[in-house]
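Suppose a classmate hands you a notebook page containing two proteins, each written out with its sequence and a corresponding row of structure tokens. How would you begin to make sense of it? This section walks through that situation. The first entry is reproduced here exactly as it would appear on such a page.
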Amino acid sequence: MLGISYPTLKQWIYRGKLRSVRTAGGHHRIPESEIHRLVPEPRHPRGQPADRTRFRTVSGRNQLVGRIVEVRVSGLLAQVTLSVSGQYITAVITADAAREMGLAPGQRAAALIKATEVMILRV
């Protein structure tokens, strides 16, 4: 819910930034009131998705910027195709995410690629 790692969570507890309750076994439990203190409630009319602009900055460096050439929504999923310097990249995301971002052909967008392996093919 906070979007932080467990080591960061532990440091916040140790430094007093986040209040916790210790169990008999020595584990930390974080009261719901502490979560609400750190995560503001979304202020949107009912039925609309929460604002995700705070998630825009990412650490991934493999970002390819291009233009959306096609958005196909079917059920819970959306297939988004970008044209990047004449090459096409297709991603499958949730239909809710596609609607929330207002994705449409012609818009500028970026593909964020996160992989543990990269292969090279001689062409």
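The notebook's second entry, a different protein, reads as follows.
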Amino acid sequence: MPKAKLFVISVENRPGTLAHVAKVLGDNRVNILGFLTTTSNGEGTVQVVADNVNKAKKALESSGLKWSETDVLQAELPSVSGTLARFTEKLGAKGINVTCGFATVARGAKKASVVLVVSDLERASRVR
């Protein structure tokens, strides 16, 4: 399974914040392949998988936003009922914990791209 870089951007919980992050990346010709935003009280994060890691890093560095990066598992799974259950059961059977994940798929699409933050990326990348 391929690995990807996940950018975790610390943000305030206020209107327009996601738009600002998306604009920073978009203005630097970085395409967002997937994102997850979460908030708690006045703080939040925007987690982004981008098409160009180097451009994303440069854009975030020059933006003044606080961010970190981590390696994640990015798996393409068939868009069929039960596929996520079967795949994550395999991870669990190998003692690999999923601490965060997100995915979406357009209706009628054949595959979904799933991004998972896992406890053992090396072992998880070998699960089929």
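A careful reader of the second entry would note: The longest helix spans residues 17-27.
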